Amino acid sequence: MRSWLTYTAARVGLFLAAFGVVYLFGARAWVALILAWLVSGLASYVLLSRLRDQLSTQTVERLERRRGANVGDRLTGGASREDDLQEAADPAGDERPADEAPAAGTDTAAPAGSEAAEAAGSGDGEAKRDEDAATAAKDA
C-alpha cells in the first residue's frame, strides 16, 4: 500500500510540475493539460521506473500469497468431491487397484453400451430367469 501511495504521489507531483512549466511557456486550458500529461508520462517512465518496479513486485507477491492458499483449497475440495463421488458409485467400498483382476465369482459386467454388454443380450435379468426356469424344471 505504501508503494502505491508513493508512486501515485510522485506521478501527481510530476504532472503538476509539468503543468507549471507548460503554463509558464504560454500554453493555456486544454492544450496545457494535454501537454502536461504527455510530458509527465514521459518523465515518469524514465524517472519513476524504480518505484514502478517496487509496486509491481509487491502487487505480484500479494496476488501469489492470496492465490496460493486458494489453489490448495480448491485442489483439496476437488479431491474430496471426487472421493465422495467414487464412494457413492461403489457403496460396497470395494477398493482394489485398477490393474488387479477381480476375484473369482464376482460380477464382471461390461459397461452399458459396450460390445460385451450387447452380446450378453438383455443382461443379468434374462440369465437369472433362465436359471430359475432350469431349477424349476429339475424340481418338477
Automatic annotation (TrEMBL):
Bias (Basic and acidic residues): 125-140
Compositionally biased spans, kind Low complexity: 100-121
Leader sequence segment: none
Annotated region described as Disordered, given as residue ranges: 57-140
Alphabetical keyword list: Membrane, Transmembrane, Transmembrane helix
Annotated transmembrane regions: 7-24, 30-48
Pfam family, one: DUF4229
Protein name: DUF4229 domain-containing protein
